[in-house]
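Hi support team,

I submitted a single chain yesterday and got back a structure, but I'm not sure I'm reading the token output correctly. Could someone confirm the output below corresponds to the sequence I sent? I've pasted both exactly as they appear in my results page.

Thanks,
R.
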Amino acid sequence: MSQFIMLFALRCASLLLLFAHVFLPLSAQTPLQTSEQFTVRPSPWSVSIFGGPSQLFHTSRMDILLDKPGCCQYERGTALGLWAGLGVEYALLPQTFSLSARAMFAQRPLVLSETASTAFGRPIPRYNPNTGDYGTLQRRYTYQSDIPFLATDIGVKIQPFSTLPVYLRLSGEIAIPIGNRRSAQQTVQLENLPQGYAFPNDMREIVTTRESSVPLRQFSFAALGGIGGEIPLESRLFLGLEVNYRYGLGSIRSDAQDWRMNALQAALGLRWNFTEEVLTTPKASPEASQQTLAENVDVHASAETLASARFPLIVKALSGNPVELQETVVTQTFPLLLYIFFDSASVVVRNRYNPRIGSPSSFNEQNLPKETMQIYYHTLHIVGRRMKANPSAMLTITGTTDGKEWANADQRQILAMQRARSVASFLTGFWGIPQSRIKLTTRDTPSLPSNGRYTEGDEENRRVELTASVPEILAPVVHAQFLELTPLQEKQLVLVKLLNPEEAESYEGRLEATLQPSSRSSTIPRADTLALTKGIGAPPERLPLLLGRKFAAKLLQYGPALNEVRCKLEVMQRNGAVMRGETVLPVSISKNQYEVSRLNLIVFDFDRDDMRATNEVMLRRFTQESIKPASQVRITGSTDRLGELRYNQELSESRAKAVQDVMKRVNPRIPFLQVRGTGASTLPFDNDTPEGRYYCRTVRIDVQTPRN
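Hi R., thanks for writing in. Yes, this is the structure output for that exact sequence:
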């Protein structure tokens, strides 16, 4: 029922937006009026009011019987809520980027429901007087409370397309419960009773208990991400529809019971944009300014807009050198990190370990992005696919804890086993791996634990470890002989010439390539942004466009067929008009005379420089297959950010030296051009996540071999 109400509200809001857009007079969408002495323009400040329904999703590991922990637990529940509030925005980049703050009232019913047929792991017997035998009794537990919240969220509002009234919102939320009464009602209802079996007054609901107080946290936190759209009702009033997802960060209870609350929220709102008057001082005649427009630059602005600006900014010219790229034949080996990490006291496999792949039969690891973290997040899919292809292989899943999540060691063992079962359930459910081929084990802490003195160490110890009887199951992912395009310079400089640059309020420059559709897809080519830069005021005369890692990654979909890119510049004037310029830059591609082989070794655990046996076998094989007599080898060791800088530098050098020693034993004639450690000076991955820190405890081997 709640899902129907949610869908109905969204459809009504969509129809209201469509009606306003079609039937409102065109005058509601015209620019603001200007006078001879003052220019009226939108202020960066605006206020809004909004409200709508929310679908709440509760997940929990809370004991049903709080006085008897371990009997059974609530797992989930859903409810329909409402939210409404006021907001304020400040536009840093008009129609592009704004800061946002909102205060809201949220009615968020707390509901959990669970059917249990066991207690402490044993079935609950019930006697059937009709047949004289025993069956299993089922109990339906319901825990609910109606507690309102006051919340505030602060974040950013991004409009990625200047021509479409669509925006993205990213924000963080802080919420507090309100009211003096925070009570919850828990009911127990018996199910599947024998026919004719009844309690006094023919009641099936036999137990009702009330908590005098629900132990909620004083503050709860969440992250919000959403998408919305707006249409103008008049020059300063906008009608908008937004849909967002609220992801709860941590439990909402203050005791040891885990309870998380997420929500899908929709809201219809009105936003009022303030205006301000700006005094204009004549500098030259409009006719003189119009004559300086360059003939070879594509400038898009209506005559009405130009007339409203006394001295319009003009993009006179754009120019730049060719974009120089290098084509390299690359073979890259991506070893798997065989750890799946969990939140504190949680047994839920995080969503990032289940990226969408369609059907299991369509999954092919060779089609994965050639990027370390993307491959890592597909680990369970990779293992599932390989287990299907190797029907005799056995997989061992070991669940661990940080040794602190529960005070009782027996409870921690249960937690570790539930984590292992969660991973096993994914492999058996999605990939159809028989349970008989999966062995579950537990440890209180990992055999090679991270240092528990650090909060990050505890995060890394809450995990599941994978081992297999067949090496192929956990072997690295190898992308062989693919073409890689890399820029020869770090940034592309574009020369910009403007007339009246003091009229500029903000600018956006980008490099675009045209992605041609395949024969089976749409026949409309699509412009793809390769590099982007933005700023306040007028663009510099030498506009820099950074050609970094993301630029190189996007080039993979074009290959050698890319022969030109377009440089586009948009400059917004103070009166709201947008002036555009465009030029074409040729692309020059040179072929690398060396073929490159790379190996990123995840060989070292926390604070260690010794190599595991499985990784040594992989390193020996790589040395034998990838290094030729004319090859040139570079070895680079690194660490995470934890620990003292000097110690990390020495540790990274020791790791690089350990790899060099193994390679020398395989081939004493290897020409090493460089063997070095970088410590934590260059962090290739995000150190705010356990997997990011592990992938920084790495030694990278780069082998260059002359082609032919």
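A quick pointer for reading it: Residues 321 and 585 are 7 Å apart (CA to CA). Let us know if anything else looks off.

Best,
Support desk
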